[in-house]
Amino acid sequence: MSLSGKVALVTGGSRGIGFATAKVLLENGAKVAITGKDQKRLEKLAEISNVFAITADIRNSNEVKNAVQKIVEKFGRLDILVNNAGVFPRIKQLHEIEEDEWNEVLDVNLTGQYRVTKEAIPHLQKTSGSIINISSDAGLKAYQGFNADAYSATKAALIILTKCWALEYSKNKIRVNCICPGVVDTDMTKPFVKTQKDRDFMNAEHPLGRIGKPEEVAKAVLYFASDDALWITGAILAVDGGESTK
Family per UniProt (predicted)? Predict the structure, then answer.
């Protein structure tokens, strides 16, 4: 699945699934740009890897526009967009969620994806590129006691947007697909697996008996980004150890 000559942008690429994805794309020949808010972390990653790191907050349209412009100026093109950046809110029931908390999650997890995709589309139209949206099992079904309504809403919205964009840009041969991970061992999920009891519970929730690894999601991204998936668009793939089948 060689990506030689391809240029990829991975948002939220400084850690977790994002960085694992950047690493896998690099290993398979792509030139990779990552964005994030932590400038020091991005600079450190740029020093130890071949990623092109750009500090950008996807809540800010100007920063998003500047990031995409810098990528195209440096590499001359854009072939792959991985919409990975996101936030996870504090667990609360709906009646306890403040409106600013609600809006913050929507601004990052949904409107942020719109901002980046909007800026990337004109360049992807030139390359018949590929967009991979990172959603979640929480966008596929409701979970008893999960109580992260804004998060679930944004992840469900990203699933239907994947299908909308797949149809909207099919004439440009832009492929748009979506991955829905289960619980993956990242900084975002660490608060939920603090003890061995927590980890045992999370492992048991997945029919294959364990939570996922970031690189396992990254390899699914690689497939969608590669020419092996040239006849696939609008697909929604659960990468979750079977969790969403229950």
Answer: Belongs to the short-chain dehydrogenases/reductases (SDR) family.
Give φ, ψ of 194 to 5 degrees: -70, -35
pLDDT in tens, 49-63: 899 999 999 999 999
Question: What would the DSSP string read from start to end of 174-199?
Answer: -EEEEEEE-SBSSTTTGGG-SSHHHH
* Residue 195 buriedness (CB in 10 A; 0-12 / 13-18 / 19+): exposed
> Residue 27, CB half-sphere, CA atoms under 13 Å: how many?
10
Give residue-wise pLDDT tens across range 67-91: 999 999 999 999 999 999 999 999 9
What are the residues whose beta carbons fall under 8 Å from the beta carbon of 209, sequence distance 6 or more? 203, 241
Tens digits of residue pLDDT in 129-142:
999 999 999 999 99
Q: Closest Cα to residue 136, out of 110, 118, 117?
A: 110
Would the pTM of this model clear 0.70, i.e. be above it? yes
Domain limits, the chain: 7-184+214-245
Task: List the catalytic residue out of 114, 151, 169, 223.
Answer: 151
Q: In what order do the strands lie in the sheet with 236-239?
A: 52-55, 31-36, 7-11, 80-83, 130-134, 175-181, 236-239
163 contacts 114 by C-beta, under 8 angstroms: no
7-184+214-245: what fold?
Rossmann fold (3.40.50)
Among candidate residues 72, 50, 64, the one with its CA nearest the CA of residue 127: 72
Helix or strand run (H / E) with residue 236: strand 236-239
Whether 151 is catalytic: yes
Burial of 196 (0-12, 13-18, 19+ CB in 10 A): exposed
* H-helix segments, 76-107: 99-106
